[in-house]
Amino acid sequence: MLFTPRAISRALITAAATGGVMTLSLLTGAGTAAAHVHVDAANAAPGSTAVLEFRVPGESENGTLTTQFSVALPNVASARAEVMPGWTSRLDRDTAAGTVRAVTWTAAPNTGISAEQFALFRVSVALPDEESISIPSTQTYSDGRVVRWDQPPLPDGGEPEYPAPVLELTGTATGGHDHQAPTGTATPSPQSGEASAAAAETAGPAADDTARWLAGGALVLAAAALVVALVRRRAS
To answer: In angstroms, how far is CA 97 from the centroid of its own chain?
Structure first.
């Protein structure tokens, strides 16, 4: 049986549609994952000092603001929160053990994170000598709703609804102090904070989207090549 031009055209359209759906699914999944509380740190190594950066999105469906955010630290030896305009920070210390157990940020009146925004919370800590740390977090809204980001990975390796932020300590220890850690004595300008937030918002998703579109295009080309090969085989 020979493939007619119409059959070839239909096959190519089907392949393109399949690749488009797969690409759209990837992009949709990425948007869902990005809505979770996430922690990151540059060159975080076991036993070193690093600045943890928590990305907290507003997720309220009824327009309420995120007015408080707290993280449970793994009893680190020391911690220092960065000054954040419109928010106050409080360290929960274990005086007997000489460690810091948690950090809580509270928004000033008429301040908070809306559903169309996210905020970056930074704290400099002395990391424990471990390969990774789980940092359960709590997000509180102005209507009293509390979301606890504290769930471990599912037994099958999947992601739960409210996963706890996890930081992999894969950096290289330098043996000294992190001089880039925030001192807490200088207040960053709102303009610089907005620029950093905009860069974080656009850089990561743009790179991921490009990779996913390329993957979708590769699927379409592979399907088209398969159709051409079948036509040549039937014609020979």
So the answer is: 32
Using pLDDT thresholds of 50, 70 and 90, give the confidence band for residue 25: very low
Same domain, 203 and 93: no
Q: How many CA atoms lie within 13 A of 215 on its CB side?
A: 13
pTM for the full predicted model? 0.61
Residue 162, Cβ neighbours under 10 Å: how many? 15
Tell me which H or E stretch contains 223.
helix 190-235
Strands 87-94 and 99-107: antiparallel
Beta carbons of 151 and 77 less than 8 angstroms apart: no
How far is 174 from 115, CA to CA, in rounded Å? 39
Query: In this structure, are strands 132-134 and 166-168 parallel, antiparallel, or unpaired?
Result: antiparallel
Nearest to 53 by CA among 103, 140, 123, 1: 123
Count the residues in the chain: 236
- For residue 218, the tally of other CB atoms under 10 A from its CB is 11
Domain boundary among 188, 205, 223: 188
Last residue of a domain, one of 148, 168, 188: 188
Q: Helix, strand or coil for residue 88?
A: strand
